[in-house]
């Protein structure tokens, strides 16, 4: 039974529906989940309108009214600042915590004010330790490589540690000076005019990320999980990431993982059903491999900084930087989001490509177990691009394309849906 809650967030009543609960890090989705959305700044409102229509249409096509989403607006960014005097109101945080799964458009990074970025802040508040970026080619998308369809990877990037965690001290600061002295007492020299960044990588943080990557590979019949690292140089952080990954595979997936060596010696290079290969590659080699042997890779597990570079490089390879989807996932919360920014110069022009948020929404449907609806979105988006009915960003790179507005592109996707 779905019912109205009497709770309010930011003064808004919650629509009739039910909460998504988490058990063992997995969502338990009712037939009418309440899903908070943040429409986003700049081009966010245009993109969100198109996305909502597409996702609702796919759910109707897939489940004929048996399932639906109770969307609930929460506020962050410029809109929140304007209406509530805060870039991230406490009630928005409470609503996301209450309902567990949310989706957001791009948000402006506030200049000054002590917040690094709203996206980073949300990841930290909800301990969304796993950044997931699937990279897959849609036929017809202009790409810089000859065979973009050969790359089909899902990147699991650690989201909370590494040099990216923001433990940094500027040149001449008291903290930098103190750290330089401390390191000197270990017998190592750092130039006095240095800024200092700390690169912590923990066993706990690495293993919970690798666990999710292996679970995903097994659940989705993916052949390999590749641990990407720079362990030849940074042995106790990057190298440890690799070692802890293998240890985790051996202790928690003993009957379902094989190393490259075992695959060769025991299984004559034929992977038995229900098993996954866990291997590793040095990060610089990985960048070459995704270009030269893309078909050999499937799931990539990386620490934070390597994953940042690799996600965008892979997305660019399939021409999809503008439509790349993403999710930040923790054990009791997940936020699906645009990977591009607010593109402020196009705000309100109904012009930009909503593909990134639409595909993030499709990821969300899959995460909730609504795989049929996700497939409908993917098929219809693929057809729309193949028909060369696209937004300006693709139209300018395709010959013979029909340029559509954001809203028209959304409607074209809906027209191309087959249930
Ligand atoms: P941006 O908003 O990503 O825009 C850079 C350029 O990328 C745009 O001018 C446009 O290129 C293209 N682009 C972006 N989104 C597009 C879309 N949906 N469809 C088609 N083309 C698109 O980057 P920015 O200008 O550096 O950042 C603007 C604001 O967004 C900043 O406040 C930044 O902090 C924030 N930001 C937020 C997120 C997030 O919320 N996840 C991520 C990155 C940045 P052309 O002009 O060449 O067409």
Would you identify the regions where 5 or more consecutive residues have pLDDT less than 50?
none
Tell me the strand percentage band.
Answer: 15-25%
Question: Can you identify the CATH superfamily of the largest domain?
Answer: Isopropylmalate Dehydrogenase
Question: Helix share of residues?
Answer: 25-40%
Overall CATH architecture of the largest domain: 3-Layer(aba) Sandwich
- Number of H- or I-type helical stretches: 14
* Major sheet: arrangement of strands: 6-5-7-17-16-8-9-15-12-14-13
How many beta-strand runs? 19
Question: Strand pairing plus helix content: what structural class?
Answer: alpha/beta
CATH class of the largest domain: Alpha Beta
Biggest sheet record:
11 strands, mixed
| Multimer state | single chain
Compounds present?
NADP nicotinamide-adenine-dinucleotide phosphate
**Mean of residue pLDDT?**
94
CATH topology of the largest domain: Isopropylmalate Dehydrogenase
Rounded to the nearest angstrom, the distance between the terminal CA atoms is 26 Å
User: What sort of overall outline do the alpha carbons produce when their principal axes are compared?
Assistant: globular
Radius of gyration: 22 Å
The number of distinct structural domains comes to 3
Explain the layout of strands and helices.
Layout: E1 8-9, E2 12-13, E3 21-23, E4 26-28, E5 34-38, H1 44-63, E6 70-73, H2 78-84, H3 90-99, E7 101-104, H4 118-125, E8 130-136, E9 152-158, E10 168-169, H5 174-185, E11 196-197, H6 203-219, E12 224-229, H7 238-252, E13 257-258, H8 260-267, E14 276-282, H9 283-292, E15 299-302, H10 304-317, E16 325-329, E17 334-338, H11 355-367, H12 371-386, E18 389-390, H13 392-395, E19 402-403, H14 406-415
Parallel strand pairs: 5-6, 5-7, 7-17, 9-15, 12-14, 12-15, 13-14, 18-19
Antiparallel strand pairs: 1-2, 3-4, 8-9, 8-16, 10-11, 16-17
Bound molecules: NADP nicotinamide-adenine-dinucleotide phosphate.
The site of NADP nicotinamide-adenine-dinucleotide phosphate (NAP) has 17 residues, from β17.
């Amino acid at each position: 039974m779905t019912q109205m809650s009497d709770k309010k967030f930011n003064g808004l009543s919650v629509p009739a529906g039910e909460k998504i609960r988490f058990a063992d890090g997995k969502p338990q989705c009712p037939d009418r989940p309440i899903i908070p959305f943040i429409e986003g700044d700049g081009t966010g409102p245009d993109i969100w309108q198109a996305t909502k229509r597409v996702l609702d249409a796919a759910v109707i096509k897939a489940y004929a009214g048996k399932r639906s989403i109770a969307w609930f607006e929460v506020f962050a960014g410029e809109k929140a600042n304007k209406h509530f005097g805060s870039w991230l109101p406490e009630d928005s945080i409470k609503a996301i915590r209450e309902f567990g799964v949310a989706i957001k458009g791009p948000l402006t990074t506030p200049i000054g004010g002590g917040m690094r970025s709203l996206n980073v802040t949300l990841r930290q508040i909800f301990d969304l330790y796993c950044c997931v970026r699937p990279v897959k080619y849609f036929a017809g998308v202009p790409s810089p490589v000859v065979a973009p369809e050969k790359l089909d990877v899902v990147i699991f990037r650690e989201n909370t540690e590494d040099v990216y965690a923001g433990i940094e001290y500027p040149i001449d600061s008291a903290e930098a000076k103190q750290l330089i002295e401390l390191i000197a007492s270990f017998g190592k020299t750092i130039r006095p005019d240095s800024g200092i960044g700390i690169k912590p990588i923990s066993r706990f943080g690495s293993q919970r990320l690798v666990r999710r990557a292996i679970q995903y590979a097994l659940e989705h019949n993916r052949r390999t999980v590749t641990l990407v690292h720079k362990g030849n140089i940074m042995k106790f952080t990057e190298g440890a990431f690799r070692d802890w990954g293998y240890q985790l595979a051996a202790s928690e997936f003993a009957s379902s993982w094989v190393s490259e060596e075992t695959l060769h010696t025991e299984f004559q290079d034929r992977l038995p059903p229900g098993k996954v290969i866990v291997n590793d590659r040095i990060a610089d080699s990985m960048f070459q491999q995704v270009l030269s042997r893309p078909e050999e890779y499937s799931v990539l597990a990386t620490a934070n900084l390597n994953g940042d570079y690799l996600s965008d490089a892979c997305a660019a390879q399939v021409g999809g930087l503008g439509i790349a989807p993403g999710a930040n996932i923790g054990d009791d919360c997940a936020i699906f989001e645009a990977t591009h920014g607010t593109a402020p110069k196009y705000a309100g022009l109904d012009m930009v490509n909503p593909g990134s948020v639409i595909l993030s929404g499709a990821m969300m449907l899959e995460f909730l177990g609504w795989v049929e609806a996700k497939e409908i979105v993917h098929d219809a988006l693929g057809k729309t691009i193949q028909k060369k009915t696209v937004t300006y960003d693709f139209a300018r790179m395709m010959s013979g394309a029909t340029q559509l507005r954001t809203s028209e592109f959304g409607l074209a996707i809906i027209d191309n849906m087959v249930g």
